[in-house]
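Q: Hi! Curious about what Ribose/xylose/arabinose/galactoside ABC-type transport system permease subunit looks like structurally. Here's the sequence.
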Amino acid sequence: MEKIANPKQKEKKKNSLSIGMLLLKVRTFVVLAILLIVFSFIAPNFTNKESIILIIKHVALYGLLGIGMTLVIITGGIDLSVGSIVGLSAMISGGLIYEGLALPIFGVKIYFNVPIIIILTLISGVIIGLINGIVITKFKVTPFITTLGMLYIARGLALLRSNGATFPDLTGKAELGNTGFQFLGQGTILGIPVAIWIFAIISLIAAFLLKKTPLGWHIYATGGNENAAKLSGILTDRVKLFVYAFSGLCAAFVGLIAASQLTAAQPATGESWELSAIAASVLGGTSMMGGVGTIGGAVIGALIIGVINDGMVMSGVSEFWQQVIRGSVIIIAVIVDQVQRNMEAKMALEQKNA
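A: Let's find out. The predicted structure is below.
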């Protein structure tokens, strides 16, 4: 004879699942609060004004990369090339300021003003992103392999730009009309660093795009079920081209800001930053399976990564252990994401059977 489930037991089980889901959804805020409390005790200078400003500047860089990465991951892809695009963008902008653009055919060297240099650098980032998108959509190469290859290509081009050397002293010269580059990474508007303004503006644009425009819904649909999206008339290839181009744009912004902050451009800039971008995105609730993610979550994830990285440095944690901890954070974030997806499926099944 079939055993009839106790209604009270069913209700208790349902409440437990609901509480568990709530805790999983607010996990990023809980983790961020715990980290802030812990590091404020073990790192004496963690709450200083200078330290806070430094952390926020770093968060802006991780956050910009995380925003672009979030859009890519929502479509079911991945972009491993963003760190190398950061380095190449820094070298492009640094080279244009430090030595200009030589035109041997005409025997001249052109020096651009800073706004033009910024535009040219951003265009280069978009072009690299588009190349990633074209290879993925037209030649059907997996995103992992495509962007892994571009990681090496972009880093190699960054090294070739100066034969591995650094472009120092990017303050420019007044007589050449290329001064003011350092304002991008060191300047402030209304007392807030320019990098934070850029991060905030791009965050708002990306959030609006995802939530309030047809393109945003197409991005979610492409990652949720690409075949169904195609059948409903969505041009999924164009969607992918857009997200990879946007990711390249965000990485180019980071390269510009990083070079401006240092007033120097180094080929190694951005090494392994793609890992921080992925971590920020996943910690913010973006599913590696695609179809799920928010810009707000990526911002919180970037805050967590920034606090962890700078908090460990200020606490004197060994660089070797820092790498172990960063890797562990990524793995744990993916495990928690999988647990959340399983619980959501279980709750949906419970509701269906109720």
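A: A fun detail: The radius of gyration is 23 Å.
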